[in-house]
Specification:
- The protein is an alpha+beta fold.
- The protein has one domain: 2,3-Dihydroxybiphenyl 1,2-Dioxygenase, domain 1.
- Helix content is 21%, strand content 39%.
- It is built from six helices and 16 strands.
- The chain has an eight-stranded mixed beta sheet. It has an eight-stranded mixed beta sheet with strand order 10-11-12-9-13-16-15-14, covered by helices on one side.
- The relative contact order is 0.16.
Length: 279
């Protein structure tokens, strides 16, 4: 998988987790995924920001949660050309601004929101930090999916803000989230990807897929969920449990994947995915 050098606007580009004990979070995820971790927070910062990498390419980060926070969570960031213009679109579409646009040193510009169902997400206007350079390989971020109580309302909101299109599938009600033209970008960094995906049985429009919209299960809360690739879901589940995580579901098979859902020792949920194409 080639190193990413940019993300088109409207494409999820980064994930991080705020943890009450960031150093413990560093140890857990470093032990689970084999990440190399570097604290890139400024010396005067009140907490840590451990940036994770694989073979020199950034994959995710673990930061210190604000004082008083008792549980951890993962956040998905979506690339935009202008954080300020996107903030106006979020307000107009019925979302809530949680953190106004601000600069993060020379890395980029950020803002944080909740959608009309109260689901948290952030946007990123890249400068020196483009987001995850390494994706879809073992130990790296694979995708983010949105579980929504009202999928039609979610489609209206995110469509207005990011120009996303939505294509129903036959996979348990999941809806493919597409950013038109994304496949053209992928072709520039990975020539032949469209043909390979088609030959592998991918559904029409899959090359433009940037996320998934899933119906809310009875015991779930609305939210953006993150999935990381692992080489062996069963081994990853065992390792996560050894490091103090709770196994919430699996390992279990779905088309093309073997999955396990975990809660890390500080409360953040995530999914681990082993790629398993049909025989």
């Amino acid at each position: 998988m080639p190193i990413r050098d940019r993300y088109p606007a409207g494409v999820p580009c980064w994930v991080d987790t705020e943890q009450p004990d960031a150093e413990a979070g560093r140890d857990f995820y470093g032990g689970l995924f084999g990440w190399q971790l570097e604290d890139v927070a400024p010396p005067q910062a009140p907490g840590h920001y451990f940036q994770a990498s694989i073979d020199g390419g950034t994959v995710a980060a673990i930061g210190s949660a604000p004082n008083g926070t008792t549980s951890a969570a993962w956040t998905t960031y979506i690339a935009v050309e202008s954080v300020d213009e996107t903030t106006a679109k979020v307000r107009a579409a019925g979302g809530t601004v949680v953190a106004e646009p601000s600069d993060v040193s020379e890395a980029g510009r950020v803002a944080s929101f909740t959608d009309p169902e109260g689901v948290a997400f952030s946007v990123w206007q890249a400068n020196r930090h483009i987001g995850a350079q390494v994706v879809n390989v073992p130990g790296s971020w694979n995708w983010s999916s949105l579980s929504a109580r009202d999928p039609e309302a979610a489609q209206r909101f995110y469509g207005e803000v990011f120009g996303w299109e939505f294509l129903p599938t036959d996979m348990d009600g999941s809806v493919m989230v597409r950013r038109p033209g994304y496949g053209d970008y992928l072709e520039t960094i990975d020539p032949g990807v469209k043909a390979r995906q088609k030959a592998g049985g991918a559904p029409d429009g899959f090359t433009d897929c940037i996320a998934w919209l899933d119906p809310l299960k009875a015991d779930e809360q609305p939210g953006w969920n993150v999935t990381f690739t692992v080489p062996d879901a069963d081994a990853a589940a065992a390792r996560a449990a050894e490091l103090g995580a709770q196994i919430l579901a699996g390992p279990f098979d779905v088309p093309w994947q073997r999955l396990v859902v975990i809660r890390d020792p500080q409360g953040a949920h995530l999914t681990l995915s082993q790629f398993k194409p049909p025989a």
